Every structure is written in C-alpha cells, then in structure tokens.
Amino acid sequence: MLEEHAQIGLPVECAGLLSLRGLKAIGAYGARERFVLNELRAATFYSPSGRELRIEAPKPVACVVDRHELDVVLAEQAMDAGAEVELGRLVKRISIRPGGVELGGSWGSVSAELAIVAEGFRSRLVRQLGLRGLDWRRVLPASQIDVPAPDVDEEGVEVHLGRGVAPGFFAWVIPLGDGVARVGLACRGADPRDMLRAFLKRRFGLRGIETAYSGSVLKCGPIPKTYAERALVVGDAAGQAKPTTGGGVILGGLCASIAGQVAAEAVEAGDFSERFLSSYERRWRRLLGAEFSAMKKARALLDIMPDGALDVAFELAKRAGLAERVPEIADMDFQSSLLRRLPRLITPGPGRRRF
What residues make up the domain containing 180? Predict the structure, then answer.
C-alpha cells in the first residue's frame, strides 16, 4: 500500500458519522472501543424556517468515530493479513506496460501485476487510466471544527437545511460527548468557511473561531467505469460515496472488499485483462447500484427544491407521522427502501387533512 502522507489517517477530512451496522460489514466492529467516541440513536432535521423533525430509534444505530484511529485499526488489520505499507509515497503516475503496471512519484517507482487506485477525489490517476473522473460540478468544498456545545443532545445529530445555511447541501452537528460537538457544512457558490462561521454564531453564539480543517464532499455518485486493464478504482476515486450525505466510508469499504476479492482471483488466474476485471464492477453494482441510483435522484430533487418547498415537505412529514415510521424502514447506508417509499409516506391520502 502506497500512502501519500507520513502518518496513517492524517490529515483528517471526515465527519466520522458511521452506522454500527456498516462497521460490522467492513470488519471493524470488533475494535470499536479503540475509535468510537459516541453512539447515537436520534437525528433532528431543521427546515429552512426552523421546523423540526426528530427521528429516534430505541437503541443506538450510529456512532461518531475518531477517523484517524479507525484508519490505524484498518491499516493494522491489513498488515496483519500480510500487506506492506509504505508511507510518504504520493503516486502521481500510473502506466500500463507489457507484463505489469508501473506506479511512480518523486520518490521513485514500483511495478506490480495489478493496481487498486484509491486516490480520493483528485482523479489524477483515474484519468491517466483513460477513465472518466468525478463530475466536479457535484464535488463541494466543506469546512468543519470541533467546538464546545454543552446544550446539544448527546444521543442525536442535527441536520440543518436551507440556502441561507448551506446552499446545495446542509450543515451538521455531531455530538462527540462531554459537551463537545463536531460542526461542519458543505456548500455550493459560497465559501464554506464563511458559511460555517455564520452558522456557529447563529447556532452556538460562537464568534471569531477559525475552521480547523477543510475537505470535499462528493454528491456526484459513481463514475461510469471503475476498471481498466490491470487496474481497479475504489472509494472516493470511484465516486462510491452517498450522494445524499457524502458519506463514503461504509459503501467505499464494501466496494474495496469486492475489489480485493477480484484482485486475488486475477492473481490466481494470471488474468489481468479488462474482461476479467470487469467482474468487480458487476459485483459492486449488483450490491449497490440501486442504492446509488435512488440516492442520486433524491439529491437531484433536494438540489432544486426552494426553501419554501422544503418547509412544506417538513410539515407534511410531521402530519403524516413520518418520524414514528422511519426507524422501522430506514438504513443509513442502504437508503433506497426509504427513499422510494417516502413520497407515499408523506402524501396526504383519503381521509387525511391536506396541508
């Protein structure tokens, strides 16, 4: 594994909100005491005008993690399984040659039979493979900071919608425990640092706080093709993040597991052709294709909805008792079941008073 940074998991560019079910799926649940900061069972959504919709589960369904420590745990698992990790190796070049693939940077180069590209959202290596990269119109800048927040609900996250808060996305408040919250937002057409300062002032009365770290949120969905001769593309590089929320740890991790299986099969068969490696894409799309499709449609709808329409949707959801019904059918990672049923759940039917 060629890692560009000098330390595993740093710098941190993640909100760290993950489902407990997802942690089990990627094989990290057993070590959760090392990186889980807080467990959560509720979420409160705020419409542009301040309407609230609170959804609660009877027990924790999510957690907020120390992403640095989670990455360390996963790297240790990989090394225990035989992986070799080289730090400070930013890969800037990839080329397919007879008999192998060459990866290189200012540090030198290395050859291999197969490369799994997990370069994040940059798409530099993806384009060098002749593949189409991410849709940059749907990659948003984001800012985030941990702040004192003694009044937050320690068991639930906050999601704040509205063009005045975070145009094109939303703001989040994630309780870390002990009166501290992780607060951030992503947006389109504005500086997220300015928007975050304004939100911190409005929500917590905090002034003059500089944002601690910035990053990017992907809401574009997967790239059209995630394999080439002697190469597979995974994670953010492949756009395998949820278009609704930008979260990519769990779905990207599931796709990475499939990539590992296909890579092992390719080595065993001695076949690194596009035809053989195309099974990677077939498998992950069979598992997640419907999820990404539903989430992209939901995100497209949210992006065009004016604030007034969002307020109406909140009111309809409250009158339909959506908060009581969602915990039974919702899944943080596999969202298609809820998204497909949502219009029917909030649309007034016979005998219901229309809004």
Answer: 138-218
